Amino acid sequence: MQTGPTINITIPVFNRLEKTQQTILALRKTHQTIPFVITVVNNGSEPELSSRLLEFKKAGIIDNLFVLKRNMGIACAANLGWRLVEAPYYMKLDNDVVIHDKNWASKIFTLWRHGEPYSTIGGAYDYAMLTHFPGHVNTPDGILGLCLSNLPGHAILVPRHLSDILGYWNEDYGLYGAEDGDYGLRMNAAGYKQYYYNTESILTHIGVGDSHEYTRRGINKKEEWESVFTERNGTLGLFLVNALLYEHCARSWRVPQRYLVADIDSECRVHLKESQEYIEFRKGLDSIQRLMNNSQRKGKFDVLNHIEKYKSIIRSCCNVNNVLEHAS
């Protein structure tokens, strides 16, 4: 019999004091018909917000708090909360999403039961997005939309029995890459369904278009995101390289984690170290990216003819076999 929470709701936080407070306090006021814990990962925020989060932890408003000394990127912070708190379901909630439906969890899970168990579910921004792809289902509990690309990462749910197969967010892409898009690539390559729920009656995304916290620190999220697809010199970005490798089974859909936990002190501060396995794996991945771009420049870009070579490179650079082994 399960005794712990059903959902581990992880909120990666980088500044935005007022929006972060609204997100956490609104969530805490919702019903626990489906039990959840609130896990906050402070991703190098400024002192005022850091102090407030410690107050929230002491008051029991948040259940788990992990503090990073500097901004390690969304994927790293979101993975930290995902890995350190055990629950059958993981939810990534951005710190600018206010849930106003007190029964949000029951409604989403009731709708989700009309889909396949090995699946993810995330919020459609509006009705048009909910019904955009063919295959959406009208159920007695609302429309279960079908996503054929990738789900937005602002309020997404992943069951543990699926993450046991596909792993966590990919940490290949820097501070503000495309970890949600990458998960969609792996879901599609593995043949798992991604579903939408309608967010309009459940939550409000209050931070859309808000880039002030980043621009004032010299972070251009748009440029960071674009370079994941196309490098500034016009060559293939790492997202497109990974897309080809996933599609042709040249690398595992269960990605290696870049950062490991070395220690957590009494002040909730987490000390990380870079995984040696990831360092070795990344050498191979970077080598493949160079080979693909050289082929593209020469006008001889043919993935299929080089797949075995790519697999061999990854094998030679990994302490473990990171090439996909199909389950029977």
- Cα gyration radius (Å): 20 Å
Would you tell me the overall average pLDDT?
Answer: 90
Poorly predicted parts: 320-328
CATH architecture of the largest domain: Alpha-Beta Complex
Q: In terms of quaternary structure, what is this?
A: single chain
Q: What is the count of β-strands?
A: 13
CATH class of the largest domain: Alpha Beta
Strand adjacency order, main sheet: 3-2-1-4-9
Query: Tally the helices: what do you get?
Result: 12
Main β sheet profile? 5 strands, mixed
Element-by-element helix/strand order: EHEHEHEEHEHEEEHHEEHHHEEHH
The CATH homologous superfamily of the largest domain is named: Spore Coat Polysaccharide Biosynthesis Protein SpsA, Chain A
Question: Helix coverage percent of residues?
Answer: 25-40%
The separation of the N and C termini measures: 30 Å
